[in-house]
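Moderator note: this is an archived Q&A kept for reference. The question asked for a predicted structure of one protein chain; the sequence and the answer are reproduced below.
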Amino acid sequence: PKTRSRGSTATFTGARISNAANGYTFSAQATRVGSTATDAIDAGFNVTASTFAFSAMPDRVSGTPFNLTVTAKDNNGLDAENFTSSIDVNAAATGGSNFVGGTKTVAAVSGAASFLGVQLTNAANAYRVTATGGGLNVDSSAFNVVFSTLTVGAVAAVRSGDPFNIQVDARDANGTLAENFGSTLSNGNDLTLANLQAAVVAN
């Protein structure tokens, strides 16, 4: 830190502590005629987390429960073990919706909060989870929620050799059309109709 003296006061500016912990103290020393004077801070202070880190965020199947861990981190990227506030998580995407299952508010233990059995039922791309707590508000990386079922439409009797159409719908856990079906996922799996296989069973 920089020191600025004015009269009988010295001000230290730009001091930083990167390691989150409780009960920090410091002392001041100054030389005087024939001796050194020392004075400790009257009360300890805490250094808190600077961000949140999320567990892996792969693409998810609509309606399938999954677990999520949010960990408070200090400026060194280490776990802020003194973080014990409650953390809220919410998910959002264009055309998507928030969590419908599991607990969305959990008190952190030694800096980490685990959210069990959360679910997203509305298929959409570029979901992000926002974690809020202890004065922090942090977004996760983007991930996709994909269809859960394929529905093949009924086919009327056709004459041998005549062309006919087959409709296949990709639906999410809500039973609604998965509008992101046919897009390329962040994990490289292509959901285009070209990858569908049709099997004909005849008696």
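Archived answer notes: The first strand starts at residue 2 and ends at 6.
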